[in-house]
Amino acid sequence: MAGIEDVIANGKCIGCGGCGAATNGRIPIRLTTRGLYEADISQASPEDLKLGSTVCPFADESQNEDQIAAEVFDEAMPSDPRTGKYLNNYAGRVLDDQAIPGSSSGGLTSWLLTELLRLGKVDGVIHVGSTETPMFGYIVSRSIDEVLDNRKSKYHPASFADTLRSVRGDGQTYAFVGVPCAIRSARLVAAKDDVLASQISFFVGIVCGHMKSTAYAESFAWQLGVPPTDLDTVDFRIKDPALTSRQYGFGAREKSDGLWKEAQTLSLVGGSWGHAVFQPDACNFCDDVFAETADIVFGDAWMPKYEIDWRGTNVVVTRNETLDKILTDGASRDELMLDSIDINAASSTQAGNFRHRHEGLAVRLADDQAAGRWSPRKRIQPSYDGVSAERISLIRQRRELSERSHGLFAEAKKAGDLQVYLKAIKPLIESYQNLTKMSFKVRVRNKLHREFWKIARKLGMK
């Protein structure tokens, strides 16, 4: 079976840090020139490589999501091929409108984490927050204020290896927060380490479309006039009460004079998530959308009913009775708006994500198989069945666009000229966009849905 060596050799390492944590740092995780984390196995022993392979989310030697879920969740819990196991499904947000601007979506992730601290269920939270270099990475928050200070999505690479090692054996308990691949890897690390297993009380997942390199933040900031050499920090999700939740903004602050600059994300080149600029290649081979090994997972409720609300709404899938009760108790105290939704509604919030992770993955696996290229073993099988020629072309073009973005931006940084990147990437994006144009009928239907829910919201309808 293919191990961590094959993952790294074929550019499929996501840099999560599982192998580094499992080997106590004997496999270090380093930031590459592409702005992505990658495991360095140059000095690893055969034993370390074997151990690292068993916790790597893209190695064939590690347990997949179904196998892990079968061990950690109740066998009687219902399951769906789109979301994995589930106890309950919700759409909701915090009811404190003063807190909403500080959250990316409905604020339920940070609300739950602070409740876990308030209730004494954990002593700390292991999550991605602000760091000095690079600007974001895994940290430990031990107070409610620290959790709140590090809210919002961080579309930035992060490795948990050093952070997990730093808390191991300190006698404290934690909630671990991560995207699907990080949760899967951390679960596998804990399964092999009794100390960490006793310390990580809850695994909190974040729905993931795909990860980004450091160039994602740098490219947006540079378009606002803040070059990478003068970039202090960024905000990826700025809400505007005059717009819908999809129409969020991006902001960047300069180091030199502290000047803050903002723009609508969709007005920036590469601002559409579907363009997949600066996506790691590993994300082309992930089939887990709803963090299927997490005790609970939060994402954006991308449904017409909710997305017209600027405040944002979370979709939530619970798999742990304690966490589920904390949410429902919050709703009963009128701290949360929490609508029960069925599994089909929950899955529909990530329709585009499933097209990329399931249908798209089947095509990419088939392409690599036909070309004799190695790819990770997945639950999705290689196939072109049922996929139109136009759709196959779109899937391939998106993969090429993502791959080209890394090298083009590196050339721009080397030249100190953003136009090197923009002039080359714009034609690629335009070509991709031409393949994704919706029909007039679909555009009208979507607009009517949005208008209906705007009117319904004004009338106080649910």
Q: Top keywords for this entry?
A:
single chain; 462 residues; alpha+beta; Aspartate Aminotransferase, domain 2; 8-stranded mixed β-sheet; 3-stranded antiparallel β-sheet; 17 helices; 15 strands
In helices, the fraction of residues equals: 40-55%
Radius of gyration: 21 Å
Report the total helices.
17
Globally, the shape reads globular
Strand count, sense and barrel status of the largest sheet are: 8 strands, mixed
The structural class is alpha+beta
Explain how this protein is built.
- The protein has 462 residues and is an alpha+beta fold.
- It has helices at residues 4-9, 18-22, 46-55, 65-72, 108-118, 144-149, 161-167, 180-191, 194-199, 215-223, 304-307, 321-332, 343-348, 351-371, 389-415, 418-436, 440-458; strands spanning 29-31, 37-39, 79-80, 84-85, 88-94, 124-130, 136-141, 174-178, 200-206, 231-238, 249-254, 260-264, 296-300, 314-318, 336-340.
- The chain has a domain at 64-212 and 280-348: Aspartate Aminotransferase, domain 2, CATH 3.40.640.
- The strands form four sheets. It has an eight-stranded mixed β-sheet with strand order 7-6-8-9-13-14-5-15, sandwiched between helices.
In short:
By secondary structure, the protein is an alpha+beta fold. 41% of the residues lie in helices and 16% in strands.
